[in-house]
From TrEMBL:
Residues annotated as domain Peptidase C1A papain C-terminal: 115-281
Domain annotation Cathepsin propeptide inhibitor: ranges: 29-87
Gene label: LOC112868647
Top-level taxon of origin: Eukaryota
Membrane topology reported for the UniProt record: Peripheral membrane protein
Family under the similarity heading: Belongs to the peptidase C1 family.
Main localization (coarse): membrane
Family matches, as SMART domains: Inhibitor_I29, Pept_C1
Name this protein carries in UniProt: Procathepsin L
Length: 285
């Protein structure tokens, strides 16, 4: 089935349950459509019903935030007309596989380990309608390792990974693996800067230019699925690359504050039936 047909079918399924439209939200709906350039035709009522359901959920969450029940705010955004199923179908792009290219990280766990909290942070970035979280995770880890080793801040090209790492097994905006991204940089012996190869949230032809490369990966390892191994890796290696289930509404509409999604079970089930949390560490040149 074509993705458009799949999403339309999901939306029409919502209409069959018929949500009564709230006229008090009409002005916000019109502004939202204008802001995001939305035009629907025959499925407008369906999309309005989905948007309204999401908007009311966001409003209720923010009321509870003001009551001290939550530590973060939510806000409507360009994903507001998508059902949970549609969002997962289009946006969750981690491709879990059993055999990784890297070696397994093995370090004995010392007692009383503590981690410094002055971590380098990058700004929040919108992925658009592109399942590129794997590429952002990979570039973020490489940037962190460069900062740890050289004290230099550099922004690396996510788009470079989207467009150029198919030979390593990634699928651009349809998803990929951080380990495949590291393998690409290692094979390619370089990764361009964000400035020279900016993010456009869609797949395109590979435009890598070695003269704009700002990083190289010499090795990477996969961390065993145990908390102790993760702590040791963070203590000894610094930045790591991790993937989590981002299909929750609280992630999709996150605006600001402290979002706590801490799960101790390494067998967390991603809702696309893609199992296991994947965490990688790497070394840069």
């Amino acid at each position: 089935m074509h993705p458009f047909d799949f999403l339309t079918a999901l939306c029409l399924g919502i209409v069959s349950a018929t949500i009564e439209l709230d006229q008090s939200l009409d002005a916000q709906w019109i502004r939202w459509k204008e802001t995001h350039g939305k035009q629907y035709g025959v499925v407008e009522e369906c999309r309005r019903a989905v948007w309204q359901k999401n908007m009311k959920m966001i409003m209720q969450h923010n009321r509870e935030y003001l009551q001290g029940k939550h530590s973060f705010l939510m806000a409507m955004n360009g994903f507001g007309d998508m059902t949970d199923e549609e969002f997962r179908h289009m946006m969750i792009g981690l491709k879990i596989q059993k055999n990784e290219n890297g070696t397994v990280f093995k370090v004995p766990f010392p007692a009383g380990i503590s981690l410094p909290m002055n971590r380098r942070q990058t700004p929040d970035i919108s992925l658009g309608r592109c399942a590129s979280g794997w590429a952002f995770s990979a570039t973020g880890a490489i940037e962190g390792q460069i900062f740890r080793k050289y004290g230099k801040r550099v922004s690396l090209s996510v788009q470079n990974l989207l467009d150029c790492s198919q030979a390593e097994g990634n699928e651009g905006c349809n998803g990929g693996l951080m380990s495949n991204a590291f393998q690409y940089v290692r094979n390619n012996r370089g990764l361009d800067t964000e400035e020279s190869y900016p993010y456009v949230a869609r797949d395109g032809p590979c435009k890598y230019r070695p003269e704009y490369s700002a990083a190289n990966v010499t090795a990477f390892q996969t961390i065993p699925r145990r908390e102790e191994a993760l702590l040791v890796a963070m203590k000894n290696m610094g930045s790591i690359s991790a993937a989590i289930d981002a299909s929750l509404d609280t992630f999709r509409f996150y605006k600001g504050g402290k979002h706590l999604l801490i799960q101790k079970n390494w067998k967390t089930t991603l809702r696309n039936s893609k199992n296991d949390t994947l965490v990688d560490i790497l070394q840069v040149e």
